[in-house]
Amino acid sequence: MRRSLGVLDGVVIAASTTAATTSIGLGMGLLTGIVGLHLPIIMLLAFLPILGIAAAYSRLNRVEPNCGNSYVWVGRSVSPWLGFLSGWVNVVGTVVFLAYTTTVTGSALIQLAGQAGLHRLAGLTLNPDSTLQSTLLGMTVLVAATLAAVTGADVAARLQRYLLGFEYLVLLGFCGYGLFAGTQPFSLDWFNPFTIPSLAALAQGMVVAVFCYWGFDAAFSVSEEVRDPRDASRSGLITVFTMLGLFLLGAVAFQRVLSHGQLVDNGAQGLTYFGNQLAHQPLAALPLVALTFSAVASLQAGVIPTVRGLFAMGRDRTVGPVWTRIHPKYGTPAAGTLLLGAIAAVVAALSLVIPKVSELISASVSAIGIVVALSYGLTAVAAAVRFRGLLRGTLWEGVRAVVLPVLSALVLFALAGYMCWGYATSADHFALRADNGWFLLLMPVLMILSGLLVAGWAKWGRRSPYFTAGQATDAGAADLLSAEPTTVRTSATI
């Protein structure tokens, strides 16, 4: 793959994958229904373990830049089985993310049509909360985004740069204005974690908030395509702090403008309602346009890092060779990109069993949040294991390299475990509904079980060298570090 990206390109890809505008527009209402008017503190609390995870990614990437990142790092430092599982749940989680974002994109387009006065088409009443209508429309955008991703990460980053610039200008403008124009009284209680309704609400809110930060690691998935591998680390950390600022601004602004009831009732149309409270048409439509741009950019950005992870797996023969085929002109894993887009479209079609967009979002976010916590936690453990020798050095280096990643991992593991236990005990029967605990638990369980089955086939069926002791990394890793032999020798000693 060609090296064509810089720091800004990495930030654009990671920020587009994180999709702050989408998270704010759709997530504020969902989070309010869980934690009440405590959006600012829940976003701040979630940032703390995420910062520890991001620091672990950055340190690991400096000594072993690899598009497989957690799949390679966990496999080498902890266990090939856990490494494969970490990579696999990221892949499957992103497929689910692409599927529901496809629906979100279609829903946003239908909302835009309604803002323009188009409410019926060919005798059909357009409904932005209809999963069927939204998914079918969103699939056309998914196809276009997938084709664009084939042409190269640098081309995608240039397109996303304009989309991201527009949506951030709109987000900053409306949220900044909302801070002063909002009629809801500001309260320091919004920043008080001890008044969150319950421990269960805190745990569920934290999982959803962690999910909102998910995607910063996309910067590390293109580390083999940046001109300097250290740029990927810079991009990842810049993205994390940027997201914190945007989420805090959005959380406070939403609570200044909208009441608790308004936030909960509007759900997936929260950003549209927020815009209507602050401006008249056509200016009121700008947040919805920004949401649409964010969803489109995240579709394309979501494909890029996931295919790179599968490319790393393909080099180890833990998955099929189709994922390693590089296009001779574009220098991208084109066949895998097209295949991933097709799989996401199929999953989007299967999600039609959930009739309402708002319920689909809630179910998907909960499932992905659990497996993201697992993957991020394992990566932090891998960093602590690899750099444990720094505990014998200065105290601060040992804390940064080992203690903080371990604490971050424990927080995420505890949150995921508590959520799973809550889902298991919240229902006494299974039902295909977004509010059924067993159904919500089934999705992350299937993601993990499928990963174990594929790992077993990779080990005993494909006889992948990834599972051989001392070789739990892909074949290209040594070549990637040839330019920095001193760093490699130091990391090996550590």
Structural commentary:
By secondary structure, this protein is mainly alpha-helical. It has one domain (7-472): Amino acid/polyamine transporter I. The protein contains 19 helices and 2 strands. A two-stranded antiparallel ribbon has the order 1-2. The protein is globular. The two termini are 30 Å apart. Mean pLDDT is 82; it is low at 471-494.
User: How helix-rich are the residues, as a percent range?
Assistant: over 70%
Taking all Cα atoms into account, the compactness measure Rg is 22 Å
Query: Which of globular, elongated, flat, extended, rod-shaped describes the shape?
Result: globular
Largest β sheet strand count, sense and barrel closure: 2 strands, antiparallel
Total number of β-strand segments?
Answer: 2
> Total helix count?
19
Helix/strand/pairing class, anyone?
mainly alpha
